[in-house]
Design goal:
By secondary structure, the protein is mainly beta. It is 12% helix and 37% strand. It contains three helices and 34 strands. A four-stranded antiparallel β-sheet has the order 3-32-31-30, with no helix packed on it. Strands 4-5-6-7 form a four-stranded antiparallel β-sheet, with no helix packed on it. A four-stranded antiparallel β-sheet has the order 8-9-10-11, with no helix packed on it. It starts with 10 loop residues before the first helix and ends with a strand.
């Protein structure tokens, strides 16, 4: 049994704010108990942490009824945890419902945009913000020995594929301008042992997922390549004339091809299979394009017709308007397209009208002596999909060859020239990047379809033309519903 003895207060310790304790007589168990001495009230104003550390064991206060922790039974604990779990589930369900509602609105918005795109009623209004690039901003990539005839840009805008009359294919990195892959052309007569083209390549296309690349040549052949590695996969035969147009249907691996044999063929690249052939043009087909619908559009050269092919219905629509050979065609959206001809005219069309909605004659001016002027040939056209911006490339005298960017008027009933970029040579191919940040031109000393005349001072190369905008954010564009 222990008992306490009250010790005297140590004045020196009190001044330092310490509590003193007087040891007690040993109890039977050998332990010594002490009682902490409370400092006088005049020393309660400040107590240092040192004094607390030096103090001995502080006696525990007796717990009141309020301080006594209530010990729950196992059943009560289970009930409490169940309630917490149910509350947590409730919050999770509420959060999930909010996320689902947000995703539903987002998907609904995207579906609505896709429907409007399908109907050709969604238009990105960016032309008003475009400004001419400085000459120092234009980059030129050189690697082909002969004139560039065609090119495409990968869906992610990171690579450019180009082909030329030297039968070669080059894959370029847009950022660095370096060659990533080169497929060299072969000599005539080496078709059996050479992997690649042995004749002028006239056209090319890339699938919307960037998986396949297709190229067509003067030897009536279509080559299918793996776009990532430029590995050769298939060879399609069947056309009886040079292959002059290729296009993958957007969102699929269906391939449309056009030829100087006046036919359009449909292929399934996944199955390495031929599907069907369509006839109608009265002259060599010079261009072809397609988007998401199961249809394609073609330019009929000297038969002066534009045709819309409805693949599923096995029918076609015929359009007339140009006075010369229609050599290039491009879809702006599912309902509108642009064409260029050797009479120097540029036309905007609707698939619902048999005549052009708008035509600009002598779009790139004329050349020649007084009284004998001839319009500059519109050798290529391009369209930034679902927008109000198109471009055309002229070929002719070296001092007046140029790429011109145009703004489409309201409801596509007009063309307004925005600016022109001087380029020496034949602009044989034009393509907008998917983002609309730049325009690429394939330039050569000769026209892609022939050698009627040659511009010796021109350089065979690829011109990357930036599309600068007034607004700081290139993605901040106005969208209009037609």
């Amino acid at each position: 049994m222990s008992f306490f003895i009250k010790g005297k207060e140590n004045p020196k310790s009190a001044k330092r704010g310490k509590n003193t304790a007087v040891p007690k007589r040993k109890a039977a168990g050998g332990s010594v108990e002490v009682r902490a001495k409370k400092p006088s009230s005049k020393y309660n104003e400040e107590i240092s942490s040192d004094s607390e550390a030096e103090s001995s064991t502080v006696p525990k206060k007796k717990k009141t009824n309020e301080d006594i922790e209530y010990e729950e039974t196992p059943q009560e604990k289970k009930l409490r945890l169940a309630k917490l779990y149910l509350e947590q589930l409730k919050h999770e369900e509420e959060d999930k419902a909010e996320e689902d509602a947000f995703e539903t609105d987002l998907v609904a918005g995207r579906l609505q945009e896709e429907v409007l795109e399908q109907k050709g009623k969604l238009q990105r209004l960016i032309a008003k913000d475009l400004i001419p690039p400085d000459a120092s901003e234009i980059r030129v990539l050189r690697g082909h020995k002969l004139p560039i005839t065609c090119l495409v840009i990968s869906p992610d805008d990171k690579c450019i594929f180009s082909a030329a009359k030297d039968c070669s294919i080059i894959k370029w990195d847009v950022q660095s301008g370096k060659k990533l892959h080169t497929v060299h052309g072969g000599r005539k007569g080496t078709e059996d042992r050479h992997v690649g083209h042995t004749a002028h390549i006239l056209c090319m296309a890339i699938s919307s997922d960037g998986k396949y690349l297709a190229t067509g040549d003067m030897n009536k052949l279509i080559m299918i390549w793996e776009a990532e590695t430029c590995k050769h996969l298939y060879k399609f035969t069947g056309h009886k004339g040079p292959v002059s147009g290729l296009s993958f249907r957007k969102g699929s691996h269906d391939l449309y091809s056009a030829s100087h044999d006046r036919s359009v063929k449909v292929w399934n690249v996944d199955e390495n299979a031929y599907v069907e052939t369509l006839f109608g043009h009265q002259d060599a087909i010079t261009g072809l394009d397609s988007l998401s619908r199961e249809r394609c559009v073609t330019a009929g050269g000297r038969d002066r017709t534009v045709r819309v092919w409805k693949i599923a219905e096995e029918s076609q629509l015929v359009f007339h308007g140009h006075e010369g050979s229609i050599d290039s065609i491009q879809l702006i959206n599912e309902e509108h397209m642009i064409t260029g001809a050797d009479d120097g005219s540029l036309s905007l069309w609707s698939v619902n009208k048999k005549k052009p909605l708008s035509t600009v004659k002598q779009a790139h001016g004329c050349h020649g002596d007084a009284g004998l002027e001839q319009p500059h040939w519109v050798a290529s056209v391009a369209a930034l999909h679902n927008s109000d911006t198109v471009a055309s490339g002229a070929s002719g005298c070296s001092h007046n060859s140029q790429v011109t960017v145009w703004k489409c008027g309201q409801s596509y009933r007009g063309l307004e020239r925005l600016f022109s970029v001087p380029v020496c040579g034949f602009i044989n191919s034009l393509k907008f990047s998917s983002s609309g940040r730049f325009l690429v031109a394939g330039v050569g000393q000769e026209h892609r379809l022939g050698r009627w005349w040659r511009l010796k001072e021109a350089k065979n190369g690829i011109y990357i033309i930036p599309l600068n905008r007034k607004s700081s954010d290139p993605e901040d564009v106005e969208v209009a519903q037609l």
